[in-house]
Write the structure tokens for this entry.
Amino acid sequence: MRSINQYFIFSLIFIFQGQIFLPVNIKNRKDYSKIQLTEIGEFGLKRKARNNIPSHYHTGIDIKLPNNNYFNEPIFPIAEGRVISKRTDGPYAQLIIEHQFKKIKFWTLYEHISGIKVNVNDIVNPEKPIARFMNRNELDKYGWQFDHFHLEILKIKPQKLISDKSHPERFYSSYTLICYTISDLQKYYYNPIEFLKSNLKYK
């Protein structure tokens, strides 16, 4: 016989199936107006050239911490999916997740994250955190410019990589630094805010 807790967990999973949610821990994870971005965190902003990286367009959004919890503030996947790539090196730690929603396949990337809780091929859902924002100690170490996480929503499957000893589960790379024109941006990416606005309403 299943316990009350098991029924509660199964009920939550059922509620979250086939839906899109915001990736942060706020009261109403369907209210996109509550998403706060950094000053240069909007989709499609032109980023200046730096350190041998040419000028390019910002391919995602940079989401600010939703409160003052610099200890264990969770990050959630926006939808059910399967982890296809994992990178764990410092401020560039990232997860890439493949999703199927309303007959559309898309991919999400979460970068500048910490405390990763999942592995490649894990099935995830919006009810359970996959990682967290960096804490104070990590921000002091890597820089407070990483006081956010970067979210991308891709139209095209990420680029296949050959994993190595330093990144044994990093099997894919995004198109983050090679979108030099608006056409490139529109080819590879959805505007995350517009995507969320359009799909949060579906139940």
Notes: The chain has one domain: 4-199. The chain is about 15% helix and 25% strand.
